[in-house]
Hints:
This protein has helices at 27-39, 43-59, 63-90, 109-112, 170-173, 176-181, 215-230, 245-256, 276-279, 297-309, 327-332, 334-342, and strands at 114-119, 129-135, 146-152, 185-190, 233-243, 263-267, 285-289, 315-319. The chain is α/β, with parallel strands linked by helices.
Amino acid sequence: CGIGITICDTSQEPTKGRVQRKAKFHPKFTRWRSLLITICYDECFKDTYLGLEDHLMVLLGKSVQRTLVVVIFHMVVIVIASGNLTAQQNLQPRITQAAQPSDETTEEPAKLFEPRVYVGEADAIKEKKLNYRLLKPKDFDPAEKYPLVIFLHGAGERGDNNVAQLKHAMSDFCRAEIREAYPCYVLAPQCPKEQRWADVDWSQPGVTMPSQASQSMQLVLALVDEMVRDAAIDKQRIYITGLSMGGYGTWDAIARRPNFFAAAVPVCGGGDPSTAGEIKHLPISCFHGSDDKTVSVEKSRLMIQALQAAGGEPIYTEYAGVGHDSWTQTYADRELYRWLFAQRRSSNNSD
Length: 351
């Protein structure tokens, strides 16, 4: 049983072969005995403990000596029992990745996206955790390299349940026809509550990019870097998209790494127009509803105008009469996927 004590013969009945007690424990020690017997749930260990206890009662004469030795004995047993419990607990897996086998016949995001946790290593994010879900390419072939799509959810899906971020758009990526035509990895991180993909003031009419990426964005980028190193990812086909708060995050990410992504699809978000010169070469397809009362459509218009003025050729779709939910029809459009997966980063560009 792994406790480092010679075990008595357990083939006998538990009550046989024990020396009968000639005296009872002091009442103060009765509670200790009950606790120890509860702790020593291992039957082999418990039988050994009770046997040793009986022999001590016979060998010790005076009550003072008996009390002192029994106290010491109990302290030793507590140490041994604690070690026994720790050893058994250490046998349990430390789950940081719940890699459940996915059902390839389903289109349910919760079943296809594997739940995982990333733990930061760099100083600024050391030991910080990021929940995320990962969709693997259909009919995965280890000899192949696959595109990676990063999806940044909106403010309403923040939390720590590692489920809410699948609410929007992810069911579209799980459609059988999309997975068959465009096998890829889809990374869906979850931003913790009270945090943002980009630390900008949403209430302001314009956006000014902070000098430093938010903690959540740093974790996402660090995770992506690790995936690029360790997974079968095509470095020339890394895409990023996001809606609402994730739209802000998309603009923020491409401005911080202008030569890293192959294309970007910001939906009803906003970016810093002063960064347009850095990202003018990047294929961008932007979407927004004309009647959006949550994130003003002017924020997307300003980015598109700045990109065009800088010499870029972004694609801009503005849905007439549509409010904040401009993502449903965006991600449901098959043309989006045809365009997105056709984009490749130039080998001359590298971050």
